[in-house]
Design goal:
The complex is a heterotrimer of chains A (about 130), B (about 500) and C (about 425). By secondary structure, chain B is an alpha/beta fold. Chain B has helices at about 15-20, 40-45, 60-70, 95-100, 105, 120-135, 145-165, 180-190, 205-210, 235-245, 335-375, 395, 405-410, 440-460, 460-465, 480-485, and strands spanning about 140, 170-175, 190-195, 215-225, 250, 270-275, 295, 310-315, 315-320, 390, 420, 430. Helices cover about 35% and strands about 15% of the residues of chain C. Classes of the chains: A alpha+beta (about 130), B alpha/beta (about 500), C alpha/beta (about 425).
């Protein structure tokens, strides 16, 4: 369920580093807690972001959740398809519904994040 | 067996635009007694609009039927109880509607000469005085248009006073049990919000408060009784802590229905508070407004009150615009006068002893409900409750049924739901406030309904999850409404 | 007491269930120090008849039987009888906010129609379910423009209602939003475009004008839009006389329209309650404050309505909300909806035309201060004595004259703002002309 090659945060984001570009999304656990997602608020391309700071937010009918960036760098691409089809976040949060791509300024940050196994225990324990 | 309601014939009615056809009229204007004027000449051709495209044209009969049919799709206090916590959905006395329409009051223009507005001014003065007595405060402004507006006014008053003392400070402390308007208001007033966690008994944690109050804290915003319906028994201590550090105590007066005639915020250390006339003072909700949010203050804050203020000038009332410390205006003119009339009529009808009796009945009704539902619903906080009681859906959640589902099933029993999922400090909250204008029969039917639903959850949880069944529409697709908003009619 | 539906015997039964002997015991848990130990110092309750008499006496102390030429943001228009018939229905009057859509389709449908009609009138894409009033819609619109552009300075015309500008000042000060004013052209009474152009810069988020403006004059919306847009600011156009929308071209170049609906069958009622609106273009929807009703379907596929885009609002966003507003003036908006329904497409135009005819008849007999084109209000110069003295003379004829402008505009101390509507009678206008001559 949780891809081995991703890394995970305590706030339920995932990140996949390929060279110096990292793709970021929210986990299946997150989308399931939020319920039907109706809107995604993403940053502009070019935004400088620090690990742990808010990238934007995800909305369901009755709640809003901030998305915290797992890594530092510059936003190089955003997933525009989510504007018309936010429901993709519910159906494919680890694939089609990636949120942003970030050009990493500190690639070593990835090492400090949870592995798939760690994340699974983490959410198991949360319950 | 559902005793309170049956199904009823409810007409399908289209939108006005779909009933419209060109040339239908519901009006007739008198003949002009002056010459007509060519709009293009008078306004300039480029300033004259084309026709109002798509605007409806219906006859008077269709208009009356349209709105009457729509009205039958609503639940209302006139039908039955709304157990909505902190909303105080009490009976809206019809005498209030009559007096608000008295011609000399309803047609009064705010810029009428003061000599011809003494009646309106006397009404406002009488209400200010009554509210000051009820709250135990020194001065009242009637300018704010609603509760949240009153909150903003109150926080701006605090800022005004602190600025005059040399330092407006930076943050406002807000309990995690607070209504959403509180932090939103603090932000609009330019303050940062710091949350303060409630204690395990659900009340203000005075120890935690003491640690948090420093020179950057302007005020604590508190609701009393709090959103659990529990009286903040250490509120006077909290006031003391704040005052010692030069901070102030703001009280959200949404729950005044538990206090009128019993306790006065001014007596237990509150510096400034707002009232909701559409809650405690019976003015009608009308589907979402209008309301009015008067603010009552202690003497120290009086100079900062919004301009203008009523003052006595010989034997008459006058408006005082020369108030150099005032925070300014929060609204044009003087306040929601029509709402003020209704609140004053309510106060006149009850009188001093009557207001106290109303409070007693409000608390009696809530405790009565609590005692009978305790065996069936989880009660997260054991403290004595006042005019409202908060349960959680923990027991039912084990079977997959949440507070929102229970609320929808309650509709089938002929009641409007209670407040769902608030306050946030209770997981899956059911917040119930009956108010004093409910009789024993209605309360018993409510209790019976809630017990029946608890039993239904055990027997057939899925049935409860798919409620309501008796309504004109079934559950509405709020997800699509948010994903693909359609906010106006298009042909 | 007639609003407390319990008999003594029922109270006793209930007290027993609560496990107490007397109602006072229910308050035993309150700290002694917090309790009020005396009765409230308020007279005992009075009968329905006495309440009616009390307010009748107060009404008699107000103006009765006067013809009035006051406007200035609050207008005397006939209220069709259907308005009170509809809003007096308990299902509308005593209903709550429509959070539970299944049992609020009456309120929700009516608000959807309201939103639609406001869009049609203003030429905007989307309108909210109303704000407290026109004066508070101004700071809400300003904050919306600041959010949308990310630029924090606001410019507002001096020809916007003075009290509305005061309200903006109160809000803006606390948000750290600098507000500056630009003037009007002395001959025409329209905005001074050169002054606007001088003051606007790359940090301006909003330019706010009113049309028809406080002087009643139809203002330069297109020109203002060009200047605002040229600097990346949004144009907010405000109206206080909703009846003007029946005839005056809507401000299509505006980004945000804010306004006051009091003219649509809302009693003047000494200043409130009224209803404001904010309407805007599609792209700014998520920045809009206030409630929104959207169309959707229920589980059986039928059309239904619900509150939507609630995540903008205080109960979810809390400190990050677009506004702290919780109310919408639903019942007032319903009055406006019924008014708009009764007059309809043709009626609103005819009503506006009558207003135009009346005001121009009166102006024709006086000395309008400005040459700008006006709707149902205009500024008249008074010669030989003060406007206050003119008003004293008019009062003797049971006429309330216009607003003497000196208190808001010292340069106009010799003038008054007169309003004539479809309710103004020729004989009274002739009397005003006589006194002012």
């Amino acid at each position: 369920m949780y891809p081995e090659n991703f890394r995970y945060t305590k706030e339920h984001e995932w990140v996949l580093a390929e060279g110096d570009i990292a793709t970021v999304g929210i986990t299946d656990h997150a989308q399931s807690e939020l319920g039907d997602i109706v809107y995604v608020d993403l940053p502009k391309v070019g935004t400088q972001i620090e690990a742990g700071k808010s990238l934007g937010s995800v909305e369901s009918v009755k709640a809003v959740s901030d998305i915290y960036s797992p890594v530092s760098g510059e936003v190089s691409e955003i997933n525009a398809s989510l504007a018309d089809a936010p429901e993709k976040l519910n159906s494919d949060p680890h694939g089609e519904a990636w949120l942003v791509k970030i050009r990493l300024s500190a690639p070593a940050e990835i090492q400090g994040l949870m592995t798939a196994a760690d994340y699974q225990s983490y959410i198991g324990a949360e319950k | 067996m559902i005793k309170k309601v049956t199904t009823h014939l409810s007409q399908n009615e289209a939108l006005l635009f779909e009933r419209s056809s060109p040339g239908k009229k519901a009006y007739q204007l008198p003949e002009l007694d002056v010459p007509a004027v060519d709009p293009a000449e008078a306004l300039g051709a480029e300033n004259v609009r084309a026709e109002i495209e798509g605007f409806p044209e219906v006859s008077e009969v269709e208009a009356i039927r349209h709105f009457t049919r729509l009205s039958t799709w609503n639940y209302a206090i006139d039908h039955g109880m709304y157990p909505l916590g902190s909303c105080t959905m009490k009976y809206n006395p019809r005498i209030n509607e009559l007096v608000a329409r008295t011609e000399g009051l309803a047609w009064a223009h705010p810029y009428a000469p003061e000599a011809l507005a003494q009646g309106s001014m006397e009404v406002m003065a009488a209400l200010e005085s009554a509210l000051a007595e009820i709250t135990g405060m020194d001065a009242v402004t009637l300018q704010p248009a609603a509760g949240a507006h009153g909150e903003l006014t109150g926080i701006l008053l605090i800022r005004g006073l602190l600025e005059k003392r040399g330092n407006p400070r930076k943050k406002i402390l807000i309990p995690d049990s607070a209504h959403g308007t509180n932090p939103a208001t603090a932000a609009i007033a330019g303050y940062a919000v710091e949350n303060i966690k409630s204690s395990e008994t659900g009340v203000l944690d005075v120890g935690a408060l003491e640690k948090l109050v420093d020179q950057d804290v302007a005020a604590l915003m508190v609701t009393n009784p709090n959103t659990l319906g529990v009286f903040e028994d250490h509120i006077a201590d909290a006031a003391e802590i704040l005052h010692q550090k030069g901070a102030l105590l703001y009280m959200d007066g949404a729950n005044m229905n538990a206090l009128v005639g019993i306790a006065r915020p001014g007596d237990f250390g509150v510096d400034v508070m707002h009232l909701n006339l559409h809650k405690t003072f019976s003015t009608p909700h009308g589907g979402g407004g209008p309301g009015a949010g008067p603010v009552a203050v202690k003497k120290a804050l009086e100079p900062f009150l919004p301009t203008p203020r009523l003052k006595r000038s010989g034997k008459k009332w006058a408006w005082d615009f020369k108030r150099k410390h005032s925070i300014g205006r929060v609204k044009a003119f003087y306040g929601n006068f029509g709402v003020l009339v209704r609140a004053l009529a309510y106060i006149l009808a009850h009188g001093g002893p009557g207001l106290r009796n109303a409070t007693i009945d409000a608390v009696l009704n809530a405790v009565y409900i609590r005692k009978q539902l305790e065996p069936y619903y989880d009660l997260p906080y054991n403290s004595p409750n006042m005019h409202e009681v908060v349960f959680s859906d923990d027991r039912q959640a084990k079977l997959g049924v949440r507070t929102g589902d229970l609320a929808k099933r309650l509709i089938d029993y002929g009641f409007h739901p209670y407040t769902v999922s608030f306050p946030l400090i209770v997981h899956g909250a059911l917040m119930i406030e009956p108010t004093e204008t409910e009789g024993k029969l209605e309360l018993d039917q409510f209790v019976d309904a809630m017990i029946a639903i608890a039993r239904e959850v055990e027997a057939d949880p899925q049935m409860v999850k798919n409620a309501p069944y008796q309504t004109r529409t079934s559950r509405v697709d709020e997800v699509t409404a948010a994903r693909k908003p359609v906010l106006r009619w298009k042909p | 007491m007639r609003y407390l539906p319990k008999s003594d015997s029922e109270r006793r039964e209930m007290l027993a269930v609560c496990g107490v002997n007397s109602p006072e015991e229910l308050f035993d848990h309150l700290p002694e120090a917090a309790r009020l130990k005396r009765p409230l110092d308020l007279a005992p309750g009075i009968s329905e008849y006495e309440i009616v008499e009390y307010f009748r006496a107060r009404a008699a102390e107000n103006a009765n039987g006067y013809a009035s030429f006051l406007g200035a943001g609050v207008y005397n228009h006939y209220r069709p009888v259907l308005v009170d018939t509809v809003v007096s229905r308990g299902e509308f009057l005593t209903a709550y906010t429509p959070y539970q859509a299944e049992i609020s389709q009456g309120t929700l449908t009516q608000i959807f129609e309201f939103q639609s009609m406001i869009c049609q009138l203003t030429g905007m894409d989307v309108a909210n379910a109303s704000m407290y009033d026109g004066s508070t819609a101004v700071p809400e619109a300003a904050m919306m423009a600041v959010r949308a552009t990310g630029k924090g300075r606001v410019l507002i015309a001096k020809s916007v209602h003075p009290e509305y500008r005061e309200v903006l000042a109160t809000y803006a000060k606390n948000q750290g939003i600098p507000v500056a004013e630009f003037g009007y052209v002395p001959e025409a009474g329209t905005i001074d475009l050169e002054d606007l152009d001088r003051r606007i810069d790359g940090l301006t988020g909003a330019v706010i004008i009113q049309s028809p403006n406080f002087f009643g004059i139809v203002d330069q919306v297109m020109a203002a839009a060009e200047i605002a847009h040229g600097h990346g600011a949004l144009l907010v156009v405000l109206f206080t006389e909703a009846v003007s929308l029946g005839l005056v071209a809507p401000p299509a170049e505006a980004d945000i329209v804010a306004g006051e609906l009091q003219s649509f069958a809302i009693s003047p009622s000494y200043g409130g309650p009224y209803a404001g609106i904010i309407a805007t273009k599609e792209k700014y929807i998520r920045q809009m404050p206030g409630r929104l009703v959207g169309q959707t379907t229920d589980a059986r596929g039928h059309r239904a309505f619900c509150l939507t885009l609630s995540t903008r609002e205080q109960h979810i966003r809390r400190e990050k909300a677009t506004s702290n507003i919780c109310t919408n003036q639903a019942l007032i908006a319903l009055m406006a909806t019924v008014f708009m329904t009764v007059y309809g497409k043709q009626g609103l135009r005819e009503l506006a035309q009558q207003n135009l005819a009346k005001s121009h008849y009166l102006a024709g007999k006086l000395k309008p201060r400005f040459c700008g084109k006006f709707f149902n209000e205009f500024v008249a110069r008074v010669e030989g004595r003060s406007p206050e003295d003119v008003n004293k003379a008019l009062l003797k004829r049971k006429i309330i004259g216009g607003v003497a402008l000196g208190r808001y505009y010292p340069e106009l101390a010799d003038s008054m703002l007169l309003c004539a509507t479809e309710m103004s009678r020729r004989a009274d206008m002739d009397a005003v002309a006589e006194v002012l001559a």
